[in-house]
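Q: Auxin efflux carrier component 5 isoform X2, please. Structure only.
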Amino acid sequence: MIGWEDVYKVVVAMVPLYVALMLGYGSVKWWRIFTAEQCDAINRLVCYFTLPLFAVEFTTHIDPFQMNYRFIGADTISKLVIVVVLAFWAKCSSKGSYCWSITSFSLSALTNALVVGVPLMRAMYGQTGVDLVVQSSVAQAIIWLTVLLFVLEFRRSGVSISSATKDGNEQEKDVEGNTENAGVLSTRPSFWNLMKVVGMKLAVNPNSYACVIGLAWAFVANRWHFEMPSIMEGSILVMSKAGTGTAMFSMGTFMALQEKIIACGTSLTIFGMVLRFIAGPAAMAIGAIAVGLHGDVLRVAIIQHLSNVVHSSRLKSQQHCRNPLPPSSSPRNMACMQKYSALQ
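A: Structure for Auxin efflux carrier component 5 isoform X2:
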């Protein structure tokens, strides 16, 4: 049974995060301290420095030889279940679409990042919860971010081809007055070309190589049993300690720059809540049952699906929702769905 002391621990862990968020929101919306350009500079500071070093700090302290692979397996199964359901929905439903499937996957399958997950799980389950969050975040950054970037590039290439073909046909009509093909041929890039683009994006993604570097160090340090030099650890900590606060502050400035906090309307808000609070935990429960999780590990697995990626979902919505899409899946609506998820 959950007692008042447990509730108090959670409140103590979470309130400071939302104080930072409200300070960011108020500094733009109410006090007009920062302009949009300055908010972008704050976001870049978080994206390129504080969050990557925050990830490095926690990743370097995990033990890769003692990771809970059943927990990671359950998380993988839950994501595969969601992929299958969304693929079936996109294929068989008149309201389904490839673009909305990507957004729905982000909302329901991506677990909470280190920013919210670490303080929340530390308050509820101690170091065990923190270790599981870090393990999940590393797997997500290395595996699922790659998959997500690939499908986004695949979608982008399809939109580009469709747009180029349409423009070629319109130009020919203007010149010749007929619809004969002018030889404008557009082909979808090959798998390896798409993977090359994805690899380049991962190579310049600070959070990706932060996890890779941290995991590599963890392997070496635990294999040969040596500690990180204090001067190196201090250099990481001086920036990583600001990771949580600056990420939430940046989220607040982003919210303040929008016309409305939740601009996607009642129906999409409810849809987002169903994905976040029902679909995600239900899929994780299926994965947990499949691999036999129980006790605190099971609770951590399900609770982390009730939280969300505070910062990365916003970055993905900004980076990838700019191409022309059908009205039902416009960039604004897709971004709104991801912004709503960041409020949880």
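A: Brief note, in case it's useful. The radius of gyration is 22 Å.
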